[in-house]
Specification:
Chain lengths: 392, 133
């Protein structure tokens, strides 16, 4: 099997934008191509992520328009990916596998979303459409509601009083906003306090407003190429050491929401392929759509034992400059950087690539050599992981 | 005995206060809501059986910011039914503002209520309800 590497990466500012999905994607896509020292004519396939373009803009089948908006050749196929919040990570993994398998040499992958443009009531409704439509959506379950149920179960199962758990969850939000304050492209660039989180409006008990990521607009894109070609084109190619992806059914089949079983399967695939363990990871961008989601992720990825990750942020272990072994979400995460769902995975990869190149500025994790990307889609039902490394 | 349980048959059951499920001949697991294969072992050797309408709340939330068209606050819960299968529904006989951690482990009975379908959904649906004993 051939080796795949990442060349140029780019993301638009995340937040509220007047630009269309196509304009946002063109900004990120062209910048990623330019940073790869390539031209649009060199791209052999476009793996394009978008979840809700039909509700955001009345636009289905956006991939061929994204293709033409950046001047790709007609012989370059454009395909839309939709795996809820894991969309772009899945698109990137498929690109990696196509390059590894020798089908293509150079692929542009990423995504775009205008979640903020929908407004909260419609955005909440469309996000909830990722729940099982016959047996779960009719109950009125929402995305925050899913992680809220996980939080209650976690509190019960591990005997951590809810009021104590909520304080530790607030510390996750505080940490990620601190990281976001160092990211000029983040949706939220202001620090917050535990008190502010605990005084927020209740969204889905026990999660309050600042336990939740925002609805954001934005796009991100990365170029993936065969490693030899990558070395010819850029100074610091970032190698794909291992990948994984797994799928699980509706929540009523998954049952115990304190374990994201798809994540455990997916990340094991990635660790095994990379011949690495959780202790080898220096920096991680993981799926903190809600504060509780970060706790589930640091446990599922193997950084903490189950039931022991809830106070990692409080202890300062996952913070930039902290005393832990892995810095979690130096970009600000979904929580502060923002969450334009179809673009999120490509933005996570962008952050890890910049970290491994030593180009993350104020957010730089000292000596970061190996990074992990973790993206969760839907009701814990899709998880995709990528392990990236700089020089070997 | 039929070996297939469709969404429509399951729904018709709920409308008539019958809770249908599938019993696996190979591993003995019960699967509900229905699907083509056993949720535990993937076997297609399934019999349609009537399930006991009771269970225990395993976790819950109170939805306060809801999708457009819903009327919050309301309580959503995951219940482990007597058959072992878990289902999602709404706890109906509690003031949502009184719902707390003590709900976890409480015994409930199951029923259903018709929910108006979203304009993007295929019609109205009988959705499960839980009544605290
Ligand atoms: Zn079975």
């Amino acid at each position: 099997m051939r080796e795949a590497a990442i060349l140029g990466v780019a993301m638009t500012p995340f937040g509220i934008s007047d630009k269309t999905n196509l304009e946002l994607f063109a900004d990120a896509g062209l910048e990623a191509i330019v940073h790869s020292n390539l031209a649009p004519g060199d791209i052999q396939a476009l793996f394009f992520g978008n979840c809700l373009g039909d509700f955001e803009e009345g636009q289905l089948h956006m991939a061929p328009f994204a293709h033409s908006s950046i001047g790709l050749p007609m012989s370059t196929p454009a395909v839309r990916f939709e795996c809820a919040c894991a969309t772009a990570t899945v698109a990137i993994r498929q690109a990696v596998q196509m390059v590894q398998g020798g089908i293509y040499d150079v692929i542009l992958a990423g995504g775009t979303e205008r979640a903020a443009a929908m407004g909260t009531p419609l955005a909440t409704r469309t996000f909830a459409m990722a729940s099982q439509a016959q047996y779960e959506t009719p109950t009125g379950i929402t995305f925050p509601g899913v992680f809220a149920m996980a939080a209650h179960l976690y509190s019960h199962r591990y005997g951590i009083p809810l009021v104590e758990l909520k304080r530790h969850l607030a510390e996750v939000a505080v940490k990620n906003h601190f990281h976001g304050s160092k990211n000029p492209k983040a949706h939220f660039q202001k620090e917050i306090t535990v008190e502010k989180v605990l005084n927020g409006m209740m969204v889905a008990d026990p999660l309050q407003l600042l336990d939740c990521c925002p609805f954001s607009d934005g796009a991100a894109a990365v170029v993936i190429a065969e490693a030899g070609k990558a070395r010819d084109l850029v100074k610091k190619p970032i190698y794909v050491a291992g990948t994984g992806q797994a799928s699980a059914g509706p929540l009523y089949i998954q049952q115990d929401l304190t374990h994201v079983k798809a994540r455990e399967v997916s990340v094991k695939m990635a660790y095994d392929e990379a011949h690495l363990t959780p202790g080898d990871i220096d920096v991680c961008e993981l799926h903190d759509c809600f504060t509780m989601a970060e706790v589930l992720a640091i446990e599922g990825l193997g950084f903490y034992d189950f039931g022991r990750g809830y106070d990692a942020a409080s202890r300062g272990e996952t913070r930039l400059g902290g005393k832990g072994t892995v810095v979690v979400n130096p970009s600000g995460g979904l929580k502060a950087k923002g969450h334009p769902i179809g673009a999120t995975g490509a933005a996570q990869v962008t952050e890890i690539v910049e970290q491994l190149r030593g180009e993350a500025g104020e957010r730089q994790v000292d000596g970061a050599k190996i990074g992990l990307v973790d993206t969760l889609g839907g009701d814990l039902s899709t998880v995709c992981n990528l392990i990236l490394r700089g020089e070997k | 005995m039929s070996t297939e349980l469709t969404f429509k048959q399951y729904q018709d059951g709920l409308a008539n206060d019958v809770f249908w499920g599938l019993l696996c001949d190979d591993c003995g697991s019960y699967t509900t809501p229905p699907q083509k294969v056993c949720r535990s072992c993937g076997s297609t050797a399934l019999q349609v059986v009537e399930l006991e309408k009771s269970g225990f709340i395993r976790t819950f939330t109170v939805i306060r910011v809801a999708a457009e068209g819903m009327n919050p606050p309301f309580v959503v819960a995951l219940v482990e039914t007597a058959s072992g299968a878990w289902v999602m529904g709404n706890v109906i006989n509690i003031d949502p503002n009184e719902a707390g951690m003590e709900l976890i482990g409480r015994k409930v009975t199951l029923s259903s209520r018709p929910v108006k379908g979203d304009i993007y959904a295929c019609g109205d649906i009988h959705s499960l309800c839980f009544t605290l004993l």
